Amino acid sequence: xxxxxxxxxxxxxxxxxxxxxxxxxxxxxxxxxxxxxxxxxxxxxxxxxxxxxxxxxxxxxxxxxxxxxxxxxxxxxxxxxxxxxxxxxxxxxxxxxxxxxxxxxxxxxxxxxxxxxxxxxxxxxxxxxxxxxxxxxxxxxxxxxxxxxxxxxxxxxxxxxxxxxxxxxxxxxxxxxxxxxxxxxxxxxxxxxxxxxxxxxxxxxxxxxxxxxxxxxxxxxxxxxxxxxxxxxxxxxxxxxxxxxxxxxxxxxxxxxxxxxxxxxxxxxxxxxxxxxxxxxxxxxxxxxxxxxxxxxxxxxxxxxxxxxxxxxxxxxxxxxxxxxxxxxxxxxxxxxxxxxxxxxxxxxxxxxxxxxxxxxxxxxxxxxxxxxxxxxxxxxxxxxxxxxxxxxxxxxxxxxxxxxxxxxxxxxxxxxxxxxxxxxxxxxxxxxxxxxxxxxxxxxxxxxxxxxxxxxxxxxxxxxxxxxxxxxxxxxxxxxxxxxxxxxxxx
Length: 492
Description:
Blueprint: H1 3-22, E1 27-28, H2 34-45, H3 54-57, H4 66-77, H5 81-107, H6 111-121, E2 126-127, E3 132-133, H7 141-157, H8 161-174, H9 176-193, H10 198-217, H11 230-234, H12 249-272, H13 277-301, H14 305-309, H15 315-332, H16 339-364, E4 371-372, H17 379-387, E5 395-397, H18 402-406, H19 410-414, E6 417-418, H20 422-428, H21 433-446, H22 454-464, E7 468-471, E8 479-483, E9 486-490
Parallel strand pairs: 1-4, 5-6, 5-7
Antiparallel strand pairs: 2-3, 7-9, 8-9
Helix pairs in contact: 1-5, 1-6, 1-16, 2-4, 5-6, 5-7, 6-15, 6-16, 7-8, 7-9, 8-9, 9-10, 9-13, 12-13, 12-15, 13-15, 20-21
């Protein structure tokens, strides 16, 4: 990278990090999917934790190496888990920024178009009905793998195939599903663009296909070829993003709309004489991903577990990336590139990002800090700090939606087993029928948590071996700890 371009990237990086965070409504430790990932990391660091809930964590933990990697970072650096997650969040965003900047250095003719691309990427949005956002307000292994995949795309555009393969190998250890889509994308792209490599790529593809057949028939993924029955599917009724045939019409319109956008702009670049053979490969790879999605839809509709668990709608995240890269070229350069035109686009996108980020920070979430690196020091946080002082084998009862209600889960913030955490346990049930049935049975046993009585609490404690109940409700039970509106009761 030329010194001038590097300085421009370095100058743009800090605003990118800030705006990406603001447009994600701030950084929050313990939010959303971290309700699973962090307990899995904690279990790696302390095998005595979660003696009852290991079966729930085991539904997904073996499918990624994220817990081992984060735990390894904590051991190697001596950082706490919250600080390590914050650091990895910054690393993920920096990697994404460097990757798209590197892509822009190949696709664009002006550095300011690269700045415009960075500004565009800060405008976090959902890939419709895919269960995926382009950015997250917390560290997610999927984001780190996406950054590595995007950097592999940049390496491919520079014809550094070995580097791209190495990056995908690292990404696969972190988040295999995301890496799988990048591998298909770039594998097809390399086959189209690099004729000399076609024999080697065919051999690699054949070996990969044999490995996949073994994994699905006799290996670790053998159970994934089962078909979900009605009871199992019923536990996923509130997750329509898993089933493309249940998508809304506008989700189909946006996701399929990436296709004509990519084809139209590639054709414009080809006519302008600036498209490369590698770009043709990327476009062909995207169309192959769409074909894979089309093949997966009937298998998904037929209830094949693997076709549901892989969430094939996420392939549109890759199309989203290429579409944004191309749209910035079309608006900021076109066939007659000029620095001034790219500067105007960069300024417009930066203003839009600043305005949106300010709205989220000062209007929608005025009480939320830009970064919550630790569990919030509020009534819930203090109750969970006390929970960490209790017997490691203690089991807790809380509102099934407590993670959404208070921002973090009992497992994550309190390091203790909990009877059920509706949102995350329900999602993990997608990977394991027994976990899905466990979650449904426990939710039914609790009933309406707001109507909890001492008798019902004792009944649940006797049935499931519970020790503590945390709630805002005043109950005629012994109080073990209290903070503000929250009380922790001992369930005798």
